[in-house]
């Protein structure tokens, strides 16, 4: 039969019989049952729709910190060692963070689909099958067919994009190879960076083309279609692609000038081109216009149950729930994968003092460098604030009534005082507070010294750094009377408007416009309760004119992005595209002394790990070595 005679060659020239991946039957997670031929798979509208959702099922699970390549693989989070069986769904991200990546058996292998990754090439194959057969169902309405084709073109582009970000120059699989392909046709090669970018960009243009046809501007049927692709989502991913392509890793990077195919074809263009930034700026503005026209806006928290809360609490919840409130108005593209595991991994034990509940693990531990990243309350870096005591940041201080984000009369380090609202919204720590919908008091107290309610009680399920990722915990998480945990699932934000604003600001600045970016930075800062860039730097910074020139504004934009997008899987990729990973990921990882009980002992900085990053090797994933043996035309990434 045709389907089982069709052979797929996943770049390594290994022939694989096409088999449908098994999964539970859920919306956007549906696979055709008992389908012996492609003709049957597209025999009618219903079967074709199942195949559409098979294409959606190829999307990586970015909602899980153990399978998102940008989460536990860098320096945002750290983990206790030795890790015990069952502590995590996959240890592969931590192997990468600790410099233990391998070309023999790569961790998080999204090329072949082994280990902690699934083959994205198989997903691309399914997209091609869909596009090649979607004309067959005779009961499919034209408007539906147009939309489905646009969705699958987007998915095909997105999977190529995902591989490009991980591996750099990749093969382009625009059509599936036929069963009678020659040996030479099977041995595909990598395409130059610019060719890959143009291919993905053009495919996204095709997906977003047309007015009133193809992709909708917004989802109308909220009951059955949330999670499906919209035109603003396609345009936003195009903006992200082009900003990445314009960044130093890909734009004029001479480190890879010798990286070539076996036939001598160069894979990186070593010449810098400002037009790439201009193209990225135009794409970002088009995406912003489309999103805002569809009703997307920066999220503001205003539920009736907290109308009496003070302004600081409302700002904190605006920051947290821009991520955690399900399908809120800032979301442009969200994954429907469950965030329950993510929330349990992030949340410290809060509710059952002094008992220990294994369901709330608190393992997703931000590092000390992340705590130092956030601004002072004056909206400038703590290293630049003329009025903030940077030299004594590790000295103990006592909390007063003026420090409303912390517990009065508690002791903690100076680092935790007079910080911006995003610091208190994103991170919980010993002595901080946490607002939850279910609690009976204004806030829950985080107390995490040894054997305290949120602290270490055994050799697993605790924060190794003393910090917790408050930003990723939906405030409706509750523990029932019998100890059962209920989490309110929210879509993982693959793209939200704040992210897009920052991409636009960056592209504008790099194009030579140092004025317009301030408008978009200040929109984000206003939501975070901060003064404008101009006011903050003029009045509080040791470098008051920093924002007036391109280099200074670049530093401001990059730190603003690292703060606003903290813990959302963005930092890992941003440091790479900026070519800053070699400096940032070659510094020690620190935390607090979580195995102690007194204020002075606990608030002692301890070394957790000496992280290393080998440049240029570690900027890209290795291709599994066996692939190169099967297909000698395929070249390995530099350094591997």
TrEMBL record:
GO terms for cellular component: cell outer membrane. Residues 119-241 form the SusD-like N-terminal domain. Pfam families: SusD-like_3, SusD_RagB. It is found in: Cell outer membrane. Keywords: Cell outer membrane, Membrane, Signal. Residues 357-640 form the RagB/SusD domain. The keyword Iron does not apply. Its main location: membrane. InterPro entries: SusD-like_N, SusD_RagB_dom, TPR-like_helical_dom_sf. Residues 1-26 form the signal peptide. It comes from the Bacteria. Belongs to the SusD family. This is Starch-binding associating with outer membrane. It comes from Pedobacter steynii. The lineage of its organism: Bacteria, Pseudomonadati, Bacteroidota, Sphingobacteriia, Sphingobacteriales.
């Amino acid at each position: 039969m045709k389907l089982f005679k069709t052979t797929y060659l996943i770049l390594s020239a290994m022939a694989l019989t096409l088999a449908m991946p098994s999964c539970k039957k859920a919306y956007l997670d549906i696979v055709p049952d008992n389908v012996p031929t492609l003709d049957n798979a597209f025999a009618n509208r219903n079967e074709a729709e199942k195949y559409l959702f098979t294409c959606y099922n190829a999307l990586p699970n970015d909602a899980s910190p153990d399978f998102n390549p940008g989460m536990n693989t860098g320096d945002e989070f750290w983990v206790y060692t030795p890790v015990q069986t069952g502590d995590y769904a996959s240890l592969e991200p931590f192997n990468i963070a600790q410099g233990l990546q391998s070309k023999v058996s790569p961790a998080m292998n999204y090329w072949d689909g082994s280990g902690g990754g699934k083959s994205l090439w198989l997903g691309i194959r399914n997209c091609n099958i869909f596009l090649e057969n979607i004309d067959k169902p005779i009961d499919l309405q034209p408007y539906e067919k147009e939309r489905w084709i646009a969705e699958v073109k987007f998915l095909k582009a997105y999977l190529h994009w995902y591989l490009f970000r991980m591996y750099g120059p990749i093969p382009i699989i625009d059509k599936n190879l036929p069963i009678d392909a020659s040996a030479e046709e099977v041995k595909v090669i990598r395409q130059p960076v610019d060719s890959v970018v143009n291919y993905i960009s053009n495919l996204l243009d095709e997906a977003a083309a047309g007015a009133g046809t193809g992709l909708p501007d917004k989802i109308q049927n909220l009951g059955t279609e949330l999670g499906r692709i919209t035109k603003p989502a396609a345009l936003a991913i195009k903006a992200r692609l082009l900003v990445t392509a314009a960044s130093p890793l890909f734009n004029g990077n001479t480190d890879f000038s010798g990286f070539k195919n076996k036939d001598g074809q160069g894979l990186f263009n070593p010449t810098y081109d400002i037009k790439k930034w201009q193209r990225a700026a135009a794409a970002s503005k088009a995406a912003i216009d489309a999103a805002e026209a569809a009703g997307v806006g920066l999220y503001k928290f205003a539920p009736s149950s907290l109308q009496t809360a003070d302004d600081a609490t409302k700002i904190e919840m605006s920051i947290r729930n821009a991520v955690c409130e399900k399908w809120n108005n800032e979301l442009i593209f969200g994954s429907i994968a469950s965030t329950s595991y993510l929330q349990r991994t992030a949340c410290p034990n809060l509710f059952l003092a002094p008992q220990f509940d294994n369901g709330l693990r608190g393992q997703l531990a931000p590092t000390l460098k992340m705590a130092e990243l956030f601004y002072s309350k004056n909206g400038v870096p703590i290293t630049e604030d003329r009025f903030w005591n940077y030299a004594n940041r590790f000295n103990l201080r006592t909390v007063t009534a003026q420090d409303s984000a912390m517990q009065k009369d508690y002791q903690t380090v100076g680092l935790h005082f007079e910080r911006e609202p995003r610091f208190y919204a994103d991170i919980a720590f010993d002595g901080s507070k946490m607002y939850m919908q279910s609690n009976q008091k204004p806030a829950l107290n985080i107390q995490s010294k040894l054997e305290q309610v949120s602290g270490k009680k055994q050799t697993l399920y605790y924060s190794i750094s003393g910090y917790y990722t408050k930003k990723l915990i939906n405030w409706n998480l509750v523990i029932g009377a019998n100890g059962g945990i209920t989490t309110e699932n929210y879509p993982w934000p693959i793209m939200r408007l704040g992210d897009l604003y920052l991409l636009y600001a960056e592209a504008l600045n790099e194009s030579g416009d140092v004025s317009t970016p301030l408008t978009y930075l200040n929109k984000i800062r206003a939501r975070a309760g901060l003064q404008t860039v101009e006011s903050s730097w003029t009045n509080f910074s040791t470098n008051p004119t920093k924002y007036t020139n391109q280099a200074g504004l670049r530093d401001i934009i990059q730190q603003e992005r690292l703060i606003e997008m903290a813990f959302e899987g963005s930092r890992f990729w941003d440091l790479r595209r900026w070519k800053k990973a070699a400096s940032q990921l070659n510094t020690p990882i620190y935390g607090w002394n979580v195995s102690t009980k007194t204020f002075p002992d606990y608030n002692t900085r301890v070394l957790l790990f000496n992280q290393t990053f080998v440049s240029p090797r570690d900027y890209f994933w290795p291709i599994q070595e066996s692939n190169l043996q099967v297909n000698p035309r395929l070249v390995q990434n530099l350094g591997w």
